[in-house]
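The methods section describes the discrete structure representation at length, but only in general terms. What matters is that the chain and its backbone geometry are given together, residue for residue. Nothing conveys this as quickly as seeing an actual entry. For illustration, here is how one protein appears when written out as sequence plus structure tokens:
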Amino acid sequence: MGRLVVDVPDFPTTGVVFKDITPLLADPAALGDVVEALAAAGRDADGATNVDAVVGMEARGFLLAAPVALALGVPLVPVRKAGKLPRETYAVSYSLEYGEATLEIHTDALGAGDRVLLVDDVLATGGTLAATRELVDRCGAATTSVAMLMELTFLPGRESLGDIPLTCLLAV
């Protein structure tokens, strides 16, 4: 799978090495394998779905979270950048590896006690993950597992997980 993730230096800003996943998205067999591997984070030891929803983070997380939600047979809940959701939202502002951002979720996106699998493409500093967990909490739901395509192991993102199980397919 590593060959299907291409490094792009100095994007979106100088000093950042962007991980381009478009070659992975263009390979149906590899993408199918990735979706199944990520979906495993939402299943118990017998293969039964043990989450009530999949939350996908903007923007590349949507590309992975949507088929994961389908594979698990549960709703997809988008977490979007500020101003992109049309109804009442909860919002959290946070720092990321190359700037600041605000994420939002619809206030009625998740129910009290819902068990949630978070899906995104890259675990870096953990800012997006921590902000998304806070949004899930505000809805009254609980993050029970996290699935990431890749983890940048030289950054402290894993620290934002606490004791929540992490499925990560590629360590960089």
About this structure: The longest helix spans residues 60-72. The chain has a mean pLDDT of 95. The radius of gyration is 15 Å. Strands lie at 6-9, 17-20, 53-57, 76-81, 89-96, 99-106, 115-123, 142-151, 166-171.
